[in-house]
Amino acid sequence: MCAVYRRGFRRRQWYCLTRYGRKPPGRVPPIRGPGGAAFLEHGAAILNALTFRYIPGALEPAEQAALAVEIAAVIATAPLFKPTMPRTGKPFSVAMTNCGVLGWVSDRDNGYRYQRTHPETGHIWPPMPPLLIALWRRLSGYPHDAEACLINHYADGAKMGSHQDRDEADFAAPVLSISLGDEAVFHVGGPKRTDPKTRLTLRSGDVLLLQGESRLAFHGIDRIKAGTSRVWPAGGRINLTMRRVTAPNDLI
Ligand code: MD3
Ligand code: FE
User: For 197-210, how does the pLDDT look when each residue is reduced to its tens digit (9 = 90+)?
Assistant: First the structure.
């Protein structure tokens, strides 16, 4: 068996990550087109109640390239900015922007929040591009469209400390994360900061789907492996996290 085939086989598996470590649950079919929903059900059956879904190689190179074009257009309209920490005002090493009706921002005076406008231009965020809308519908398993997509840009040396994502009103909705560009060492623990962590390398085209208990797990990015991808001509890594922010009103 050649190395390339072995790698392809390994990368088409679903993994379950729990605070007890990484368990390969066995082989399942790759995600493709309208079969995506069936794949999620299949994965859910195999993984039972497991709420952390790691889908390596979910986006093929051509899809990654097309998505990169859409994201570059968003950044051209809504430039990357460096958020600052609440209270201390220390700048993040990760640069950010957003698309969708709401975007995540942070600064010294007003802290972490979602808002409708870019903090520097004052303009509303660009709309969610078509490929992102389609990916959410294909992969999230959630019946309402995403409201926010946070675009995190990591240059070599950027990292994100361990944190929980709890600025959304609706924890019932999943968070969908898409990696594009250089590889990153990602860690995830449990609902307490002190819970043991598992590390994994996120590569371009990998997707994570977080829901249920894993939605409130501590997680972060330890480091970027510079020069491991050619998706961005200037190098670096972009992570897209798509979310519901407000609870959908099901009463109407
Ligand atoms: C696990 N971003 O924007 S994405 C973030 O690669 C964030 O830029 C990282 O953490 C990045 O908040 C990680 C994967 C991710 C996103 C949300 C999660 C993993 C998660 C929520 C709960 C548990
Ligand atoms: Fe996060």
Answer: 888 899 999 999 99
